[in-house]
Amino acid sequence: MPDIHDLSVMRLAQAVRSRELSPVDIVDHYLERIERVDPRVGAFVTVTAEQARDQARQAAKLVADTADPADLPPLLGVPIPIKDLNLVTGVPVTFGSAAYHDLTGFADDTVVVRLREAGSVLTGKTNTPEFGLPCYTENDVAPPARTPWDLTRSAGGSSGGAAAAVAAGLAPAAQASDGGGSIRIPASVCGLFGIKPSRGRISQGPVVPDLFGLATSGPLARTVRDAALLLDVMAGNEPGDLYLAPPVERTFLGYAERPPGRLRIARSAVPSVPGAEVHPDCLAAYEEASALLEELGHEVVELPPTFEPDLVPHFEALWGVMATLNPVPPEREHLLQPLTRWLRERGHATSAPEIFKAHAALQAALRRALPVTNEFDAILHPTLAQPPVPVGYFHGQEPAENFRRQKMFTPFTSVYNVSGQPAVSVPLHWTDAGLPIGVMLAGRLGGEGVLISLSAQLEEARPWADRKPEVWYA
Fold it and tell me: How many whole angstroms separate alpha carbon 355 and alpha carbon 110?
């Protein structure tokens, strides 16, 4: 018999509805695993054991009181942790920063409300770097988040804790977020499937502004169908949202059940960041994915030039300004990490005309690039330019070198935050050393459904969910 943590989100939800498993037993199992295994992987900042058990008891009562299981919420009794960049009423929130060591959530973010309404159980807040700025998860409030595939290496970021939790069997899936690759990066280094949805698909409300439209919540999961189900739950807008994604024809889970048909897919392994070099293992994953797509009957062609390297400074300008959005009292500035202080200094030094010029330059680039990318159903890239790196590879450097290394590591992901197009990381490849390497597929704005259908086809052709790291069996 499989352990509870071997079961997918969909299987767990079905087991709750059929009364095969009690939500209380599910939550107890996961809380025990978190207590025993998490010190090795650094997935959680806060564990909400008492709240989780209370929610599980309420879920069990709802099952007992509901005559028709079809009337139950889709995630009833399923543990889904929340990233520590998101507010949950009454639960500590650090934003990955010692400067926020004493803050408690004063509202529920909209994505939290949607997951709560779907019946999910909050087991805790997952680890994230300070203000979600870096592509690795090492901060002053929790141990580093490590990929369960090699505990000497980083789980990536900024959703590193979320990915470590799912990959280590501490959660069946997790809420995550992505402003420059922060879902796809940890998905790649932790061997998971992650979706960065289209701009405006998921509300950022009610507190976080969506000024530049770079960041969005999204799911991290072990299977495409689990991620699609979570995206169905998370999706939706609220009054005041600045961006609205194009509507879709069916549920995202429905797309996962639907063959994609023959697609026209472009590919490119040319980094958008000057000087970045793609590691042979990442190129191997990319080439294998290209061959698999052709085997499945898709047309694969080379992508014409689209996003040029001269966009990088404009994105950096936005990133520096975004680093200033978290208010920090002067008496707590010394608690910020060197990279954060460096980025905030750059952001404060950027004038309003300069930031508007950067934003205008990025929009002008999109008006040139999107007519090209829209000719294709999907676009294939390596997710990252390097395999998982050791803990401390970025964090042990001076800020300028730290930031340079991050750009060399992630030269493919950020362009799709700028464009707002959906993108996924698919875990199709492992190195000879047993390290996962993801490939990225991007789609048209509003085209998550196509990416989900295609990813489900790839998963069926090269299943990955049963491949688990040693720590899984701890």
Answer: 28
Instruction: Let me know if 272 is a catalytic residue.
Output: no
Hey, what's the torsion of the CAs at 363, 208, 448, 294, to 10 degrees? 70
Tokens 């429905």 belong to residue = 254
Half-sphere exposure of residue 198: CA atoms within 13 angstroms, side-chain side: 23
CA 18 to chain centre: 30
Tokens read off for 158: 């900024």
**Amino acid letter for position 427:** P
- Residue 310 has a pLDDT of 87
The candidate with the shortest Cα–Cα distance to 381, out of 459, 462, 272, is: 272
Whole-number pLDDT of residue 1: 59
**Active-site position among 182, 198, 203, 272:** 182
Kindly report the number of other CB atoms within 10 A of residue 266's CB atom: 21
Which residues of the chain fall below pLDDT 50? none
Q: Which of 75, 70, 71, 77 is nearest to 28 (CA)?
A: 77
Distance, in Å, from the CA atom of 213 to the CA atom of 39, rounded to the nearest integer, reads 35
Amino acid found at 77: G
Is-contact 51 76, C-beta < 8 A? no
Question: What confidence score (pLDDT) does residue 309 get?
Answer: 86
- Alpha-carbon Rg of the chain, whole angstroms? 21
Catalytic-role residue among 8, 22, 83, 177? 83
196 is catalytic: no
Q: pLDDT of 270-287, one tens digit each?
A: 999 999 999 999 999 999
The whole-number pLDDT of residue 173 equals 99
The predicted structure's pLDDT at residue 474? 86
Burial class (CB in 10 A: 0-12, 13-18, 19+), 315: buried
Please indicate whether residue 158 is annotated as part of the active site.
Answer: yes
Report the candidate in 123, 182, 193 with the shortest Cα–Cα distance to residue 154. 182
What is 260-322 written as a DSSP string? --S-EEEE----SSTT----HHHHHHHHHHHHHHHHTT-EEEEPPP-S-GGGHHHHHHHHHHH
Which of the residues 22, 154, 158, 272 is marked catalytic? 158
